[in-house]
Write a structure and sequence with these properties.
The chain is built from 1 helix and 5 strands; from the N terminus they run αβββββ. By secondary structure, it is mainly beta.
Length: 74
Amino acid sequence: MNKVFDNKSAHPLVALKPGEVVRMKLPGQHIWTPAVVSGEVAPILYEVRANGTVYRRNRRDLLHTKEQLPLDDD
């Protein structure tokens, strides 16, 4: 019976495409930083670029946004 209540508001996450802007938490930080999706490594694993560094993140750890691309200082 608990499964019914747990899944009541569950919904599948939308797949991300390269070049889309997302938000992610950088290691040791509590704020969401803008990042750009570089590509999909596995069905739920993505490479994202933030502040000139490439990270691998699970889809559930990325927030899809409608923001413009952040400016890189690189």
